């Protein structure tokens, strides 16, 4: 050490007397509540019978046989396992240690198996269909969440994801119908998403308007505009203007034939494959490129970015336009894959769930994607269970995706940290 | 590189922040810009750095007139700046911060972090810094963060280096090291502009001194000038630099803090095993580098912290567990460390701010309605007594200068019957004239028999006010020593070292 650093200041620590761990009791409490819930289900509404899990689709390399289990016994077994996990978690809490992630995963899996076994007594659960459908329902959410992550990382809150999805869906249907090409529809959806982003940027970046308010207003604006256009233009000329071509499923050779994984991930439409690439690209670009470093810097400490010669507002502009294009692409999924036509308010608030995925995913593209997949699973579970006729009232099941959202954001997100300057317009000087 | 600023004028509305300021800085020279807070030093440097555009005047580098439309231009021209509030991204690593805006890239714009790490190591080695390129900036102590700022400027080949109030956050030892670094930089031919209001530092390191007051150059001085002369030039009138106070008339033990421990929501222990006693009529000054538990200590005394264990007894009564209002009503006066956030409501008038801690009843509130006559009479009296320079008592507090804002806070806190006064950074960002006044008021409180706890990161202030000095380091008491303890010893204690033969 040279003379200039000879003082005895320890150089790489903050001046604290120490650190104790603060343990959250959310995990044991939540585990306990859920276990008791499952216990009550099997005690009060358990019916004897068998439940079958179908894992194969018929075109795999080899068939995984169907698994049939006695409902009540299996559910009891899962209740027991969940109770064990809960006990373990309580023990860890008392020993002032955190509940590890793997325990949460094991608990969630076992609870879900127990719940499904109980709910589908006397019926068959198409596991592959359930999961593949979850992915499909999650696609717009993932696109929306990626757009949200990008915008917020650059410091712009984007409440308008829902508007971007809806505008994208509308544009894809209209342009897809006129041109007769799915890819033209996708292109139009991206432009539509960017147009919404353009308004967002104009108010939020140039005029310093509160970003949450601008976002909400934009959502209402897009709902109004698309509904008006739908009734006045699209509906009367449905055959010409609201009849877009549809993306076909393209099974990927080899990968698509892997049992379980293949049918879920690799027998999807092209737009889903684009999604995989987008997730990978956004993640790489955000963390590994000059562009990403600058985007993150303007979202964290714009003044610092400014003092090293980065144009803060230009960077924010470019980022939210890109984010708009990505979110808009999610909209195309509705009209070019799910339902081959546009309907008013057809996103059903998916943009807000995507926003929840951004927060639940802690502003990280991969985690936000996983969160969106979880929400997709919750939505699809509701659909599958109502088809096989579960004992849960359908009104309750319809709540499921939103209940999961609230629990996820309010309960399970730990101390997550938003980009420091998100939502704060940057003014020079 | 030779830097010439010629007749720079910068106005904000009707306020002239810089009025035809001219300055010449030669390569291999440390040029000190001395002036009070608000004199216009930082504005001038922000003009130089392209953050502001001058309304008049020009910037000349090596004989060429330059026009900077943004910091990017200034950096490209060879100007580097170490900002008073560090311009570092807290969640980025050192290497990422150093490369930001100047990134070495590989395939498709991918970051070349290895090159950045190498650059950090190379510059660190050249100046003998010990900085880990992969450390996350927010985990580093401020002294090291400042070095990262210097590395950042040097990595862009800055030839003119501006240091804006760089010592405000440093320990005396770190300050000495910084002076050493500045000399090294000077020897390597850089032109250095050193902005400060601390006289001692100026005299130690400067080759030339330019004094600025109210946006104008009021004179040049040589480093051999006396402190009193420099201060007079800076303030515009002769200033009393020392606080005159009589020996304390000590009463009984008034505030007894025993084994205090403060933990935050994240489980970080900010204050640990802190025990001390203040007698009536005594000032105990807490010295330490910012962030070593002082904030949490004062907040715990006022009941603002959630996880507090140990005991705080004021005249025999336990304060822990009581509400803030209850503690205030038991006679605790509190001058918070940030008057703009915690001390005042900027959009309230002076009069309204003066009654903030007495909004629950007599004399200013009766049956739920404000007694405006009483309040206004009180405000007029206090504004006069505390020499608050303002157009009237209905002036908004946010429009006052820092010194006058602080006088309002001090007036409010001292105009009650106090059992304890806690003053955190009572003169931070306050002009020299007001410092004098506020110090007198604090000493007057002590002479009236009130126990006083003063927290300051300025060693000068600690030494001037204290009857005894308590040094905090990492939330623990390094020692409680007499006020005549040599500065070097105090400086060492602020780094956690306990002098020979002393126990806490």
Walkthrough of the structure:
The complex is a heterodimer of chains A (429) and B (504). Chain A is mainly α. Chain A folds into two domains: 106 residues, no CATH class; 242 residues, no CATH class. Helix content of chain A is 66%, strand content 5%. Chain A has 16 helices and six strands. In chain A, strands 3-2-4 form a three-stranded mixed sheet. A two-stranded antiparallel sheet of chain A has the order 5-6. In chain A, helix 6 runs antiparallel to helix 13 and helix 14 packs across helix 15. The longest helix of chain A is centred in the N-terminal third of the chain and has 27 residues. Chain A is globular, with a radius of gyration of 24 Å. In chain A, 48% of the residues are buried. By secondary structure, chain B is an alpha/beta fold. Chain B has two domains: 233 residues, P-loop containing nucleotide triphosphate hydrolases (Rossmann fold, 3-Layer(aba) Sandwich); 242 residues, Rossmann fold. Helices cover 33% and strands 26% of the residues of chain B. Chain B contains 17 helices and 22 strands. In chain B, the strands form five sheets. A six-stranded mixed sheet of chain B has the order 6-7-8-3-9-10, sandwiched between helices. A six-stranded mixed sheet of chain B has the order 16-19-20-13-21-22, sandwiched between helices. In chain B, strands 2-1-4-5 form a four-stranded antiparallel sheet, with helices on one face. In chain B, strand 14 and strand 15 form a beta hairpin. The N and C termini of chain B lie far apart (51 Å). The model of chain B has no long low-confidence stretch (mean pLDDT 89). The interface between A and B is large, with 46 and 71 residues.
């Amino acid at each position: 050490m040279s003379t200039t650093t000879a003082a005895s200041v320890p150089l790489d620590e903050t001046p604290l007397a120490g650190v104790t761990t603060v343990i959250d009791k959310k995990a044991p409490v939540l585990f306990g509540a859920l276990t008791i819930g499952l216990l009550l289900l099997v005690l009060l509404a358990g019916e004897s019978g068998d439940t079958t899990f179908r894992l194969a689709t018929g075109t795999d390399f080899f068939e995984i046989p169907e698994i049939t289990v006695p409902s009540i016994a299996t559910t009891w077994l899962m209740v027991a396992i969940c109770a064990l996990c809960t006990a373990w978690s309580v023990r860890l809490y008392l020993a002032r240690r955190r509940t590890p992630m793997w325990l949460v995963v094991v608990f969630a899996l076992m609870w879900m198996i127990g719940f499904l076994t109980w709910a589908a007594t006397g019926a068959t659960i198409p596991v592959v269909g359930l999961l593949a459908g979850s992915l499909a329902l999650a696609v717009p959410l993932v696109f929306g969440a990626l757009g949200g992550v990008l915008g917020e990382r650059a410091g712009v809150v984007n409440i308008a994801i829902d508007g971007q999805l809806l505008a994208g869906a509308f544009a894809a249907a209209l342009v897809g119908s006129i041109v007769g090409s799915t890819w033209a529809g996708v292109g139009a959806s991206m432009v539509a998403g960017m147009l919404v982003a353009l308004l967002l940027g104009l108010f939020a970046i140039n005029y310093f308007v509160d970003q949450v308010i601008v976002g909400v207003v934009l959502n209402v604006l897009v709902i109004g505009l698309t509904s008006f256009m739908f009734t006045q233009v699209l509906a009367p000329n449905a055959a010409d203007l609201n009849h877009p071509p549809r993306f076909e499923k393209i099974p990927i050779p080899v990968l698509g034939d892997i049992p379980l994984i293949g049918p879920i991930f690799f027998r999807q439409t092209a737009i889903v494959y684009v999604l995989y690439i987008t997730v990978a690209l956004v993640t790489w670009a955000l963390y590994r490129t000059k562009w990403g470093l600058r985007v993150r810097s303007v979202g964290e400490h714009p003044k610092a970015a400014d003092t090293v010669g980065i144009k803060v507002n230009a960077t924010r502009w470019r980022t939210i336009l890109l984010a708009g294009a990505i979110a808009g692409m999610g909209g195309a999924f509705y009209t070019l894959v799910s339902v081959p036509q546009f309907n008013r308010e057809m996103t059903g608030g998916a943009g807000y769930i995507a926003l929840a995925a951004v927060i639940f995913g802690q502003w990280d593209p991969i985690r936000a994607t996983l969160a969106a997949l979880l929400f997709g699973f919750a939505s699809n579970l509701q659909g599958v269970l109502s088809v096989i006729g579960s004992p849960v009232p359908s009104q309750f099941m319809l709540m499921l995706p939103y209940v999961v959202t609230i629990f996820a954001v309010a309960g399970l997100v730990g101390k997550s940290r938003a980009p420091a300057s998100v939502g704060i317009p940057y003014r020079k000087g | 590189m030779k830097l010439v600023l010629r007749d720079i004028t910068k106005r904000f509305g009707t306020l002239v922040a810089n009025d035809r300021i001219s300055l010449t800085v030669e390569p291999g020279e440390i040029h000190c810009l001395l002036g009070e807070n608000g004199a216009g030093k930082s504005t001038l440097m922000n003009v130089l750095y392209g953050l502001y555009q001058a309304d008049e005047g020009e910037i000349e580098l090596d004989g060429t007139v330059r026009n900077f439309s943004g910091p990017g231009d200034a950096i490209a021209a060879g100007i580097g700046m170490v900002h008073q509030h560090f311009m570092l991204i807290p969640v980025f690593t050192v290497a990422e911060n150093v490369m930001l805006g100047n990134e070495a890239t590989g395939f498709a714009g991918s970051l070349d972090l290895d090159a950045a790490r190498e650059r950090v190591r190379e510059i660190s080695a050249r100046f003998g810094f010990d900085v880990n390129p992969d450390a996350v900036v927010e985990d580093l102590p401020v002294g090291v963060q400042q070095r990262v700022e210097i590395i950042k400027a040097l990595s862009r080949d800055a030839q003119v280096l501006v240091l804006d109030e760089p010592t405000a956050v440093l320990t005396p030892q770190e300050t000495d090291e910084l002076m050493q670094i500045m000399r090294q930089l000077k020897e390597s031919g850089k032109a250095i502009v050193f902005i400060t209001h601390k006289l001692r530092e100026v005299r130690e390191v400067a080759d030339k001194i330019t004094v600025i007051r109210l946006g104008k150059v009021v004179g040049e001085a040589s480093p051999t000038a006396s402190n009193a002369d420099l201060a007079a030039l800076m303030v515009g009138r002769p200033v009393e630099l020392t606080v005159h106070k009589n020996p304390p008339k000590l009463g009984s033990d008034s505030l007894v803090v025993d084994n205090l421990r403060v933990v935050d929501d994240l489980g970080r222990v900010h204050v640990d095993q802190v025990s001390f006693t203040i007698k009536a009529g005594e000032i105990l000054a807490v010295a330490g580098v910012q962030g070593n538990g002082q904030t949490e200590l004062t907040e715990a005394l006022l009941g603002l912290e959630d996880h507090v264990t140990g005991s705080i007894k004021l005249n025999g009564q336990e304060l822990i567990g009581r509400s803030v209002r209850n503690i205030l009503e038991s006679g605790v006066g509190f001058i918070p460390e940030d008057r703009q956030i915690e001390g005042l409501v900027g959009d309230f008038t002076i009069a309204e701010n003066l009654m903030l801690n007495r909004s629950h009843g007599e004399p200013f509130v009766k049956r739920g309605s404000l007694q405006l006559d009483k309040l206004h009479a009180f405000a007029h009296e206090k504004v006069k007594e505390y020499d608050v320079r303002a157009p009237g008592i209905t002036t908004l507090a946010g429009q006052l200068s820092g010194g006058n804002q602080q006088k309002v806070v001090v007036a409010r806190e001292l105009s009650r019957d106090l059992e304890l006064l806690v003053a955190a950074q009572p003169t931070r960002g306050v002009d020299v004239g007001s410092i004098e006044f506020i110090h007198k008021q604090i000493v007057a409180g002590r002479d009236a028999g009130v126990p006083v706890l003063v927290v300051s990161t300025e060693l000068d202030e600690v030494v001037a006010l204290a009857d005894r000095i308590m040094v905090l380091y990492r939330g623990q008491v390094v020692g409680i020593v007499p006020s005549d303890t040599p500065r070097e010893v105090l400086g060492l204690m602020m780094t956690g070292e306990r002098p020979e033969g002393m126990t806490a």
